């Protein structure tokens, strides 16, 4: 399995700390399996709250292993910026998808699934399925 | 006919107007948003004018696509991808012609506005920039002054509406009674278009 190309995960939040912490949480819960490439893209380039197209593009390029990249986002401008970059066509690696999923739960599901060597569609499905987990 | 210089003037006039009105835009964004609309757009359009000066694109389409790319890169809030998409799609619709007619400009701007509607999922009446842009594009056939008036009316008309998109929508009924900052900045963009055309007539 070590030769397998793993799906990359990009976590886009308005906050650098949120993106980095969710990445740490998700990786921590993989139980030391395969090393999934996960990159946070949080906040603006100058460290403020917001979304940076440059940080997202750089993060996506850094996790691309040729098996596709799943992008999870939090709010408003994070969603719109990723959609805009996807519409541009050449800003993100081939096989990059915006995944419709809750940010924290979706990230854990995506990273754990990607660690099994699953393909992008399976990673996307696992992340989206996190919406169906009711807490009450 | 309108050449690259006209479109550069449009962007420069927008940047000047956004800088002038930045505090007002941020004030409008403070009761119903996160109080950064003016500063975000000012940062974006400052980058736009700097880039246009440095790279000097020589067609109308190239001016707008470059401006849109800068906004996507530098704004940091939702207005970046929204205005960026508006200008890029308008620019792409203009193609590579060295000069474009008023009709071509109106048609391209409509394509840009349609792209923003698709991206943000907003319809007229949702209390967004669309409420200024759609009437402006509809009035553009009657000239730039008509488009400016329609955009301003559209922005003012957002005041009694309840927001259904973006952060303001979280406020529900409490968003009523506030003019939408996005519709307001969109009216500045259209007013700058009229300003650029007046400069061309002189």
TrEMBL record, chain A:
Query: Please, one GO biological process term?
Result: glycerol catabolic process
- InterPro entries named among the record's database cross-references: DhaM, PTS_EIIA_man-typ, PTS_EIIA_man-typ_sf
Q: SUPFAM superfamilies annotated for this entry?
A: PTS system fructose IIA component-like (SSF53062)
- The protein's superkingdom reads Bacteria
GO CC, alphabetical: membrane
Which GO molecular function entries does the Swiss-Prot or TrEMBL record give? Answer: phosphoenolpyruvate-glycerone phosphotransferase activity
Task: Return the protein name.
Answer: Uncharacterized protein
| A Pfam family annotated for this UniProt entry | EIIA-man
TrEMBL record, chain B:
Q: Does the keyword Kinase apply?
A: yes
Spell out the PANTHER family in the cross-references.
TRIOKINASE/FMN CYCLASE, TRIOKINASE_FMN CYCLASE
Per the UniProt record, the source organism is: Streptomyces lincolnensis
Q: Which Pfam families match?
A: Dak2 (PF02734)
- GO biological process per UniProt: glycerol catabolic process
GO molecular function of the protein, one example?
A: glycerone kinase activity
Q: Which Gene3D superfamilies does its entry note?
A: 1.25.40.340
Keyword line:
Kinase, Transferase
Q: Does the keyword Transferase apply?
A: yes
The lineage's top-level taxon is: Bacteria
What's the protein here called?
Answer: Dihydroxyacetone kinase subunit 2
A GO cellular component entry from the record:
cytosol
């Amino acid at each position: 399995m070590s030769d397998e190309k793993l799906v990359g995960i990009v976590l886009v939040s308005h906050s650098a700390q949120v993106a980095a912490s969710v990445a740490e949480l998700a990786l921590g819960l993989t139980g030391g399996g395969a090393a999934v490439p996960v990159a946070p893209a949080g906040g603006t380039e100058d460290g403020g709250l917001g979304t940076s197209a440059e940080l997202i593009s750089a993060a996506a390029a850094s996790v691309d292993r040729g098996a596709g990249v799943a992008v999870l986002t939090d709010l408003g401008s994070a969603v719109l910026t990723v959609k805009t970059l996807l519409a541009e066509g050449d800003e993100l690696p081939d096989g990059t998808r915006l995944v419709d999923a809750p940010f924290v739960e979706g990230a854990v599901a995506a990273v754990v699934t990607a660690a099994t060597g699953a393909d992008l569609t399976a990673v996307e499905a696992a992340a989206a399925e996190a919406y169906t987990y009711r807490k009450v | 006919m309108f050449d690259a210089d006209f479109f550069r003037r449009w962007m420069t006039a927008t940047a000047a107007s956004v800088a002038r009105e930045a505090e007002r835009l941020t004030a409008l964004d403070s009761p119903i948003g996160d109080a950064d609309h003016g500063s975000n757009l000012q940062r974006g359009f400052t980058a736009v004018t700097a880039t246009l000066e440095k790279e000097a694109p020589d067609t109308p389409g190239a001016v707008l696509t470059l401006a849109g790319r800068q906004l996507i890169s530098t704004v940091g809030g939702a207005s970046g991808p929204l205005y960026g998409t508006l200008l890029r799609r308008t620019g792409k619709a203009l193609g590579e012609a060295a000069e474009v007619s008023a009709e071509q400009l109106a048609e391209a701007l409509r394509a840009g506005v349609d792209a923003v509607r698709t991206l943000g999922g907003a319809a007229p009446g949702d209390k967004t920039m669309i409420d200024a842009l759609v009437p402006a594009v509809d009035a553009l056939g009657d000239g730039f002054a008509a488009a400016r008036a329609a955009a301003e009316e559209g922005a003012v008309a957002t005041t009694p509406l309840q927001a259904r998109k973006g952060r303001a929508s979280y406020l529900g009924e409490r968003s009523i009674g506030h003019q939408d900052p996005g519709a307001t900045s969109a009216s500045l963009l259209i007013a700058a278009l009229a300003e650029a055309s007046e400069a061309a007539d002189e």
